[in-house]
Amino acid sequence: MSKRILVIEDDQDIVSLLEYRLTNQGYEVLKAYDGAKGLALAKSARPDLITLDINLPEVNGFTICSMLKADEDFQHIPIIMLTARDSFADSVFDDSVKPEAYMTKPFEVSDLLAKIKELVNL
Question: Fewest CB atoms less than 10 Å from the CB: which of 15, 24, 53, 56?
Fold first, then answer.
């Protein structure tokens, strides 16, 4: 059974790139282009990992991450934040709602794929 990755991102080019690369690596890819749909999909589909943009329409990535990490049913799902804000995320999250990783845009897809592989195979 392939691992399910949820990509929550409003940039369609990034979504298409990640979907292509992740599918080629054998992952099932779920997509949401705004925070509200992404949060609902995270709760209904229970993915094995989430890549999460910070600046999203409807609900921002910080709120989504905090809500999922504060909920016992979903806090085990690894989250990789994708952000244009270098090291800003470290100062925003406390340890109880911190994502497992974050990457600064633009990012190397190979680095993201390596981090995904590491986190879903823990």
Answer: 24
50 near 78, Cβ under 8 Å?
Answer: yes
Q: How distant, in Å, are the alpha carbons of 23, 72, 113, 116 from that of 36?
A: 24, 20, 25, 23
Q: What is the reported pTM?
A: 0.92
Strand order in the sheet with 79-83: 28-32, 4-8, 49-53, 79-83, 101-104
Q: Which residues contact 33 (CB under 8 A, 6 or more apart)?
A: 9, 10, 12, 15, 57
**CB within 8 Å of 105: residues ≥ 6 apart:** 82, 83, 84
Integer-rounded Cα radius of gyration of the chain: 13
